[in-house]
Amino acid sequence: MTDSPKTAAPKTAVVTGAARGIGLATTRQFLAMGWRVVMIDRDAAALQKAASPLSGVDPVLCDVSQPDQVAQMAAHVTATAPSVDALVNNAGVADFGPLAETDFARWRTVMDTNLDGVFLMSQALRPALCDARGAIVNIASISGLRASTLRVAYGTSKAAVKHLTLQQAAELGEFGVRANCVCPGPVATKLAMAVHTPDIIAAYHDAIPLNRYGSEDEIASVITFLCSPAASYVTGQIIAVDGGFEATGIGLP
Ligand code: NAD
C-alpha cells in the first residue's frame, strides 16, 4: 500500500500595480507557474478589466500609499490566502522634472506611491512573508541607478527603493525571507509613454546596447525568477534589466 500523494497548496503572490504594464505581465507569468495572484491596484476599472479573463486571481482595490487601505488589504489577504509566498512591489508613478520645477506636491505624489507604498506593503505583509519564508521583489528603475537633470523626484524615489531592498534583505534573512530589487530600463507602458518624448525615445535607442526598449514580459520573467526556488540563494541584489544600458556608462536621456 502506498500513501496517496499530497497535493501542495498553490503558492500566492501579491502583485501591486497589477492592472496593467509590468504588473499585469508578472501576474500572468505567476499564473502560468501555477501560483495564485492577489492583484492590487487603485484603478478600479483597469483592475476589473485585467482580472476578469484570468482565473486564480483575487483582485483587491487598494491605494498602496494609504496606510488604512493597506491595513485592510493585509487583513483580507492573510484571512483568505493560505500563504503569502511573494510580494512584488511594482506600483509606481512617473514624474519627469528638475529640482527647479518640482513643487512639494509633485514630490510628495511620487514619494507617496513609489517609496511609502513599498514601505507600507512590506511592513503589512512582513509577518505572512516570514511565515512562508517568502520573497520580496521591489521594482525600482535605471533612474535610481543614475542621476539626470529630469528626475529629481522619480530618480530619488527609486534610489531609495534600492536601499530599502538592502534593509529588507538584511533584516528579514533570518526568517528565510529574500528581498531583491529589479531596475528596468525603458518599457513602452502607459507610465513611460506619458513622459518619454520622441527625443527621449530616440536617445534611449542609441544608448542601449540592444538598441530597443524592453517588453513587459522581459521584466516580469526576472521578477518571477527571483520569487522562484531557482533563486533560493539570491537576496539583497539590485538587478538592472535594461538591455545593457547600465554597462555603458552613458547618461540617462
Ligand atoms: P503602468 O502605468 O503601466 O502600471 C502601473 C500600475 O500601477 C497602474 O495600473 C496604476 O494604476 C498602478 N498604481 C499606481 N499608483 C498606485 C498606487 N498608489 N496604488 C496602487 N496602484 C497604483 O506602469 P509600468 O511601466 O508597468 O510600471 C511598473 C513599475 O515599473 C513602476 O514602479 C515603474 O516606476 C517601474 N519602471 C517602469 C519603467 C518603464 O519604462 N515602463 C522603467 C523603469 C521602472
TrEMBL record:
Coiled coil: none annotated. It comes from Roseovarius mucosus. The keyword rRNA processing does not apply. The keyword Oxidoreductase applies. Belongs to the short-chain dehydrogenases/reductases (SDR) family. Pfam families: adh_short_C2. The gene is fabG. Keywords: Oxidoreductase. One of its GO terms (biological process) is fatty acid elongation. Its EC number is 1.1.1.100. InterPro entries: KR_dom (IPR057326), NAD(P)-bd_dom_sf (IPR036291), Sc_DH/Rdtase_CS (IPR020904), SDR_fam (IPR002347). Transmembrane segments: none annotated. It is an enzyme of class 1 (oxidoreductase). Residues 11-204 form the Ketoreductase domain. GO terms for molecular function: 3-oxoacyl-[acyl-carrier-protein] reductase (NADPH) activity. Signal peptide: none annotated. This is 3-oxoacyl-[acyl-carrier-protein] reductase FabG.
